[in-house]
Amino acid sequence: xxxxxxxxxxxVALVSGASSGIGQATARRLAQAGFAVALVARNRExxxxxxxxxxxxxxxxxxxxxxxxxxxxxxxxxxxxKLGPIAVLVNNAGMAYTGPxxxxxxxxxxxxxxxxxxxxxxxxxxxxxxxxxxxTGTIINMVSIAGKQxxxxxxxxxxxxxxxxxxxxxxxxxxxxxGIRVTALCxxxxxxxxxxxxxxxxxxxxxxxxxxxTVADLVLYAASLPERAVLEEVVLMPSGGVL
Length: 243
Description:
alpha/beta
C-alpha cells in the first residue's frame, strides 16, 4: 500500500459498524493491507477488543451512535486530527427489522431508514469537503442484494437499501469530476450477527452464506484499485444459491 502522497502517511479508512461482522472483517483487512483505520460503532467494548489487534499509532476507535447526525462532523474531525485525511469511507453500519409492512410500527420503520440510509448520507457529507479539496477519495456503500430485489417481511430493510443504491448512483455522478470514486457493494446473505437479532426472523442455512471476510476482500479490492479505475456496482452472491 502506497503512502498518502500529500502527507507521507498511510492512507486512512473510516469503517462504520466496525465492531462486528462485515465491518470488523473489513477493518482487519484494510489494516493488514497498510491502511490506518478509524473504527466507528456504538459498542465501545467490542471496538476496544478489535483495536487491541491493530497498531495503536495507526488505528482509532470512536464509540458513536451514527444516527446522532449532528455529531458526525466532530467525528470526522477527530479522525483526521489523529490519523490524517480520510481516503476511504466504508458506510457499513446497518440493521434490519422483519415483519409485514401492515403491522410494522412507524418507529421501527424510521429507525431502519435512519441507520441504513440517512446515516451514510450524513457521514458522507462530513467527509466530502476534504476529499473534494484533495481531489481524491473512495466512498464504499454496503448496500445488499435487498437493494436490487424485494423480499416479503423485509420491507423497511429493502426500502432502505434501494434508497442507498440510488444514493450511491446519484453521488457517483455528482463527485466523479472531483476525483472521488463511489462503489456500491450488493452482497447476498452474509453470516453475521444480524441473524441473531431479536428484530429479525428468518430461516436460512447460515453455513451456505457468504463469510464476512469474503465481503471484506471485495472492499479492499475496490479501495485498492488505481485511481483512474472504479468498481461502481457489484453483486456478490453465495455460490450455493442462498439469498
